[in-house]
Amino acid sequence: WNEGNAPFRLADGEFNGLDISYARPKFSYHAENIPARADQALKEQDGEWTTRHRFWSAGHDSSCPDVREVRLIADCNRALAGRAEVFHSTFEDFQKSVVDNVSDDLVLLKGEMRYPHTPGSGSELYGWVISARMDIKKLNYQTERLLGRYAEPLASFAALLGADYPDGFIDQAWNWLLQNHGHDSIGCCSRDVVPEDMLYRYRQAREISVCVMEDAFAEVAGSIDLSHRQMDDVAVVEWNCLPAHRTEVVDVCLDIPVDLGAEDFELVDEDDRAMTIQKIDSQPHKTVVSHAHDCANMMSMERHSFLAQLPELPGLGYKTFYIRPLSEKKNTIERSIHGLPHYMENEYLKVLIQPNGALDVTEKSTGRNWTDLGYFRDSSETGNPWEHHTVARDEVLTTLGERARIACVCQGPLATVFRVELDWELPRGRSADERRRSKDRVPYKIVNRVTLRKGQPWVEIETTVENTAGDHYLQVSFPTKIDSPTVEASIPFDVVQRDIALPDPAAFDEKPQTEHPMDRFVSVSDGRQGVALINEGLKAYEPHGDSDQTLSFTLLRCFPLRICITNLEMTDYSRLDRGSQCLGTHTFRYAFMPHEGDWEKGGVRQASERFNHNVRVAQIGPSDKGNMPVAHSFLEIRPADLEISAVKKSELGRGWVVRLFNPYVKDINGTIRLNGGMTGPLETPSPVERARDEYRLPEDAGRAWSTVRVVNLEEIPQYDLDTDEKGWAAFLIRSKQILTVEFVV
């Protein structure tokens, strides 16, 4: 305060919470300190570098450039003359220098770089950020999925039919999303204003993605040849974004024109075979019809909500069904997969809702049984975004002794759904001295929707909580009863194996983390049989290592907002910002799935893909503007076990890019074909031309791809692939490899 920098802050009643800044910071430079400090920096790093090149940075993660750095570099260079050369460089040059000078006898490390801080090491793990603000983490996942797995690939396939590719909109959506990926932003290690801005960016990215997806789907559906149908037919087009064929029970919400006079309906395929459906609701509806060149109109409809089992949907493609109107109500006896009270069963599982709201599940093929699945556990939390801490006298609460209200809300041949309500109580927060949880209790309502569908080997749970408590750590727990020392977890581009037992904490300055990161699933197996927990957008799990081998998903980690501004202490913003407490309503989706063998043999990854990527549904009226078949795959991959992370236009605009990855421990020889081996129309009609031609897309198939090649992540060509006369390109993708294939026009 008294060093003459004029420390300044707003001190009125409205803005007194802002930090102090320097109004007149001194422009000092202490040359006398440089020799000793340069020598100290050099010696401290002697054991940390494997080449003679070292990286020194100035400032911190929010610093601005400083003209004094020029003098600092020169003075350090003089101080270390004969021992080191200090100069201004670039990341690229530094990287190249290290690669060019590295020795051949380096120690090879395999696995994840997830190590707690040890004495003398350079950085902490601070891994608890994975469970900070789970609402943001989940929304990020959903936005990435909408943009990367639906909007961008559909726009690419529509462009292969001759539609305009919306580069600008897609780039803008990615821009909004990536702006949220600064480390403290996506880590949720900031004041509330940061996640509030992130919510806006996610909304922008999602709005653009939905519009891109809708327009592209309309282009694809409008290109289907329906000239053999009546003009008042209602066609239903299903889109499968996964590379494998799938048969799925799909949620459908369909508007049938009142003018058709349909008292009832059936859903049929191209061969007029009726699909199995399960009706849920029906009500009159006025549907708005938008028009590109005129005002909106209205249609009188009957809106029907139902489930439909749709067979053999093509991978990365579509299949067409139709509504068959019936002049009178169809009387059927639906065979339900719901039987005894609080019980349901499909071809894979028997599920009983226990009085405490948890699940009793039996695998029919083996007779294996589990109880108390999906109970909730809650403990204290007094940490911060980076660290999990508990009160000294913690109190761990569970719902195992609670009494739930259970009601069957949906039953039929395709699905049964139970609503399970728990009226729980939790401590309001932490005590003033942070030694214990508060004695005051607040109501804590939890509502589960438990669903079992035909053809799905998992039971799904959708949990909605009204979070009224602070300073607590909420998990949902599953006693797996699998004897194994390890857990397999899906992470981006891979599946990794981790030990369940924690390392000896005595070796670390930082307490080893009990929860670990994941993406979509975790699986525990003894080699013969296993259990998988699948989820949508949750990012943290904990193996408890108890006698029941319990696995838990983290739902909420609600902490007082304390932020590390300097190395001296944490700054407490908890009286100003409450976002880190995650108060309000939250909804989570996850599932329990027994399986054979390990995660690979048990098809866990494929199940998690199905769970996370719904079949998209559209309806369309016939026109005479289509030339595509009623079922079609735009992108074919053999084998279909490989995972796709991107289908997009190439950055140089000369073709299309497909990115694959291989999470298995084996190399895979495969083949791939895009758009039947053809480029599609080589010229895209102008907007005026399209309007005049009533938006018919060109029928020109184009020509065969000039080249199919492997490129790196920067889309720099690496090598060409051999292609046969039908357009199939052969490739080898090695274990744990990301492979990017470019199809060049």
Q: How does this structure look, described?
A:
β15 and β16 form a beta hairpin. This protein is globular. With 745 residues, it is an alpha+beta fold. 17% of the residues lie in helices and 34% in strands. The termini are far apart. The model has no long low-confidence stretch (mean pLDDT 94).
Biggest sheet, strands in spatial order?
15-16-17-18-29-24-23-20-21
How many strands? 39
Q: Mean pLDDT, rounded to whole units?
A: 94
Head-to-tail CA distance between termini? 66 Å
Helix content: 10-25%
* Strand residue content: 25-35%
Shape category: globular
Question: Which runs of at least 5 residues are low in confidence (pLDDT < 50)?
Answer: none
- Please give the count of helices: 9
What kind of sheet is the major sheet? Answer: 9 strands, antiparallel
**Rg over alpha carbons:** 30 Å
Strand pairing plus helix content: what structural class?
alpha+beta
Write a short abstract of this structure:
The chain has 745 residues and is of the alpha+beta class. The chain has nine helices and 39 strands.
Notable traits:
745 residues; alpha+beta; nine-stranded antiparallel sheet; six-stranded antiparallel sheet; 9 helices; globular
Q: How are the SSEs ordered, and which strands pair?
A:
Elements: E1 7-8, E2 21-22, H1 34-44, H2 68-79, H3 91-101, H4 134-160, H5 167-179, H6 183-186, H7 193-222, E3 234-240, E4 246-257, E5 264-268, E6 277-289, E7 297-313, E8 317-326, E9 343-345, E10 349-353, E11 359-363, E12 369-373, E13 375-380, E14 397-398, E15 405-410, E16 415-427, E17 441-453, E18 459-467, E19 472-479, E20 486-491, E21 494-499, E22 516-517, E23 521-525, E24 529-535, E25 540-543, E26 550-558, E27 562-564, E28 570-572, E29 584-596, H8 604-612, E30 616-620, E31 631-633, E32 635-638, E33 643-649, E34 655-661, E35 668-674, H9 687-692, E36 707-711, E37 717-720, E38 729-733, E39 738-744
